[in-house]
RNA sequence: UGGGGUAUGGCCAAGCGGUAAGGCAACGGUUUUUGGUACCGUUAUUCGGGGGUUCGAAUCCCUCUACCCCAUCCA
């Protein structure tokens, strides 16, 4: 793979590997077996198995079967199939969360003993009420005060099935006032009087996702637990459970990515189910569905799906991928490998009046640009069928095919000219009488006739009838809402398309390109010798000139949106006073003064630094920018540097000992280990170079090494100026005085 | 409304202070016995808006805006 840019997950994994955090990378694909997998699952499979493969680790397949009422074994089979079909192998046996029920139970007991979990007996409604809302804190249930013994006893009896569903639950004792709703004493176990498809009737209680998932990951030695964005809020519990239990390291960490969306289709379990249940589609494997089964039956290849996943990348922004990207991936995959055959979907009879007898023509399966060998015989006689729209009596401009005045080549055969048009009573064309040019035979053409197109055809008596199913997008709406957006023409069945006879001995699961139509797949379910059925996988790409006829010029051009700013919270009186002082007395610009005045920590740091070195503007700038960054994820007493050090740093800038660029570098060093700025500058030799005599040779060297860029710059590409500055600074380890470099570059070297 | 996220061309997406990668789509052109493929070229003076810091900002700071997720005994 060339130029593969890394996504954020690769980065994380590599960092962890470099830091020696784990011996081996272990990922997992953990679906709940409660529905059929779709292309969104394929993305997850591709990521999880892909990372494991790339970093020489392994990936587990784990059925997250903690809810016996929704899960079933038919789905685990479908899930296994999907992974296998995509070409991945999971590590050892398929894992099940239900295999860990006993261990999980032990962990629950441990939490109770640590007084970190309790049995709650509030009813559902009360519990919701107690949870509070996003803006209001919740309150703890009185049952949270139960003793360890009582909790242990209750849990044991819950497990034994002594209580009814809903009577009790086990909850983690965390924080009912947490701003993260998920942390308000989340449920760990609930009673379920249900038959589990694997655990049978052994358990009366089942663990919740938030308790089971992190621990299952841990039990399996998973290192990177990759899930979708909607679990971001759950990460805090994930960490809480693992940390609270004080498990032996290493432990897994959760990372989230954006789930896949594709336009003109739906991905949610609910909407997919609706389509199937209302029989809008024929089943879970309907070729219009984005399910793995559907895609597979449609004729998509595993490689094409994997390539698609690779192309769309992995990120954290919610996005909608264009179906065109998926279609591209299958065309791209099939083009260099499937044989081309001739099929006529909407036949128009052509009689070649000057041809007698019959012959078999040698026809290559692949065009000149596909490096594959192979051919078949195609029967030819005076009676053939061509595609109805490959003839036009009154052609529009730019029409390349057969017309009364324009000959056309029959692919692999002869050139013909239209001599007569036969119509029925209504004026519909029913037949063309044509003549062929005997010296125009494909491969030995001496006729010298120029044609603009070669069309596919079939011999009338030997051609076979087949059923062709043409699929279009399932919805008319780019972002479908519901069944009201269904495309009524998403499936068009042609019962009697005609295909050249060589194709028919073929069986299910074979792919062809029907020349000039698209890629087709022998339907694995309905294909039979009596009624051969082919599914259209995807059309050939439609060229611009073809489209121009149909599409009208689309109106576009949107004006740039004007954004109205919201109101800024007014300053308090105290802040006002500071702001005045900073702008008037210290001459800070209002923006800097504003941020400083509004932030108590920053302003106190600032005031203190000023007492060491009186350089109000420069110190203010450093504090509002660099220090503010440090304070974003640290508290003020975690800072390693002192205001005094800031002052000495700025003093060096003011002395011109170092540049502001270096100052930032030094500052970073300071905030990491609290070293004295003067020390850092000295030990790293960061004193700035301002002597033109030193800098000039470096500049000349850079210029000599980049003649093309110099030329481009001189030709007017002024953006390149920054490139040269950057190169010089890089060459001097950042020590060159950038102002001097700019000067020299502008006035001497590049003038 | 509290918290957690996200914003880079028509659609994905790299980028982590020094020339705005790449793919899809679109548009030209060359080749072509597929209006396909392949190949060549064009398409972001600008990164949600506004300010600030810097010689230099998509990248750092402030601020505003929009969208997504969280108040299942679902996962």
Description:
- There is one protein chain.
- Helix 16 (600-612) crosses helix 17 (616-632) and helix 18 (643-654) packs antiparallel against helix 19.
- Strands 10-23-24-25-21-22-11 form a 7-stranded mixed sheet.
- It is flat, with a radius of gyration of 36 Å.
- The chain is 36% helix and 17% strand.
- Among the domains are: 115-208, Glutamyl-tRNA Synthetase, Domain 3 (Glutamyl-tRNA Synthetase, domain 3, Alpha-Beta Complex), CATH 3.90.800; 340-463, Ribosomal Protein L25, Chain P (Beta Barrel); 573-684, no CATH class; 692-749, Orthogonal Bundle (Arc Repressor Mutant, subunit A), CATH 1.10.10.
- The protein has 751 residues and is an alpha/beta fold.
- The structure holds one RNA strand of 75 nucleotides.
Helical content band? 25-40%
* Level-1 CATH class name of one domain: Mainly Beta
Radius of gyration: 36 Å
Biggest β-sheet: count, sense, barrel? 7 strands, mixed
Uncertain spans? 545-558
Strand order, largest beta sheet:
10-23-24-25-21-22-11
Which second-level CATH architecture of one domain applies?
Answer: Beta Barrel
CATH homology superfamily name of one domain: Ribosomal Protein L25, Chain P
Q: Given the structure, what is the number of helices?
A: 24
User: Which range does the strand content fall in?
Assistant: 15-25%
Structure, briefly:
The chain has 751 residues and is of the alpha/beta class. The chain contains 24 helices and 25 strands.
């Amino acid at each position: 793979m060339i130029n593969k840019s890394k996504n954020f997950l690769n980065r994380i994994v590599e960092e962890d590997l470099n830091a020696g955090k784990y011996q081996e990378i272990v990922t997992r694909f953990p679906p709940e077996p409660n529905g059929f997998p779709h292309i969104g699952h394929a993305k997850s499979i591709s990521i999880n198995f892909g990372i494991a493969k790339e970093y020489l680790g392994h990936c587990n397949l784990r059925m997250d079967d903690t809810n016996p009422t929704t899960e079933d074994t038919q789905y685990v089979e479908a899930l296994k199939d999907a992974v296998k079909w995509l070409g991945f192998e999971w590590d050892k046996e398929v894992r099940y969360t239900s295999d860990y029920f006993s261990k999980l139970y032990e962990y629950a007991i441990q939490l109770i003993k640590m007084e970190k979990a309790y049995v709650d007996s509030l009813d559902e409604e009360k519990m919701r009420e107690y949870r509070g809302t996003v803006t209001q804190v919740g309150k703890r249930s009185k049952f949270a005060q139960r003793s360890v013994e009582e909790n242990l006893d209750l849990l044991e009896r819950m497990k034994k099935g002594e209580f009814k569903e809903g009577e009790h639950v086990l909850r983690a004792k965390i924080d009912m006032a947490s701003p993260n709703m998920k942390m308000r004493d989340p449920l760990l176990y609930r009673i379920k009087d249900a038959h589990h498809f694997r655990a049978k009737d052994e358990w009366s209680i089942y663990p919740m996702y938030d308790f089971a998932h992190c621990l299952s990951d841990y039990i399996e030695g998973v290192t990177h637990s990759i899930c979708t964005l909607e679990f971001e809020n759950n990460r805090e519990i994930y960490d809480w459970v693992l940390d609270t239990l004080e498990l032996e390291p290493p432990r897994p960490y959760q990372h989230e990515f954006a789930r896949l969306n594709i336009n003109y289709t739906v991905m949610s379990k609910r909407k997919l189910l609706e389509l199937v249940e209302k029989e809008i589609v024929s089943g879970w494997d309907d070729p219009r569905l984005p399910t793995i089964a559907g895609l597979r039956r449609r004729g998509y290849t595993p490689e094409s799906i994997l390539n698609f996943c690779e192309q769309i990348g992995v990120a954290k922004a919610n996005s909608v991928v264009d179906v065109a990207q998926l279609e591209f991936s299958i065309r791209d995959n099939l083009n260099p490998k499937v044989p081309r055959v001739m099929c006529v979907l909407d036949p128009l009879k052509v009689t070649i009046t000057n041809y007698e007898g019959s012959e078999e023509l040698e026809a290559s399966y692949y065009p000149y640009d596909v490096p594959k060998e192979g051919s078949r015989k195609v029967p030819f006689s005076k009676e053939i069928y061509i595609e109805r729209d490959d003839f036009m009596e009154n052609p529009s401009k730019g029409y390349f095919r057969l017309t009364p005045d324009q000959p056309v080549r029959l692919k692999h055969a002869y050139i013909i000219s239209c001599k007569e048009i036969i119509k029925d009573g209504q004026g519909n064309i029913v037949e063309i009488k044509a003549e062929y040019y005997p010296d125009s035979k494909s491969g030995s053409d001496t006729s010298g006739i120029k044609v603009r197109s070669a069309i596919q055809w079939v011999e009338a008596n030997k051609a076979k009838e087949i059923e062709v199913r043409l699929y279009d997008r399932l919805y008319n709406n780019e972002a479908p809402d519901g069944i009201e957006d269904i495309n009524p023409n998403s499936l068009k069945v042609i019962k009697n398309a005609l295909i050249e006879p060589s194709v028919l001995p073929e069986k299910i699961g074979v792919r062809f390109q029907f020349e000039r139509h698209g890629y087709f797949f022998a339907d694995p379910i309905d294909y039979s010798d009596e009624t051969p059925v082919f599914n259209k996988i995807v059309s050939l790409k439609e060229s611009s000139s073809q489209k121009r006829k149909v599409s009208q010029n689309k109106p576009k051009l949107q004006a740039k949106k004007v954004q109205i700013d919201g109101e800024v919270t007014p300053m308090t009186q105290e802040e006002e006073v500071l702001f005045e002082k900073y702008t008037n007395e210290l001459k800070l610009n209002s923006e800097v003064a504003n941020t400083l005045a509004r932030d108590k920590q920053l302003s106190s740091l600032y005031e203190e630094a000023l007492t060491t070195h009186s350089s109000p503007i420069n110190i203010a700038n450093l504090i509002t920018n660099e220090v503010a960054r440090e304070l974003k994820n640290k508290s003020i007493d975690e800072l390693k540097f002192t205001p005094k050090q800031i002052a000495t740093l700025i003093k060096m800038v003011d002395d011109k000992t170092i540049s502001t660029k270096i100052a930032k570098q030094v500052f970073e060093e300071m905030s990491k280990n609290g070293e004295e700025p003067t020390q850092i500058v000295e030990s790293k030799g960061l004193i700035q170079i301002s002597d033109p005599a030193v800098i000039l040779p470096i500049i000349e060297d850079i210029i000599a090494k980049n003649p093309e860029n110099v030329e481009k710059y001189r030709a007017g590409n002024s953006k390149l100026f920054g490139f040269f500055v950057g190169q010089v600074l890089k060459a001097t380890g950042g020590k060159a005085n950038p102002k001097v470099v700019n000067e020299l570059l502008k006035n001497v070297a590049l003038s």
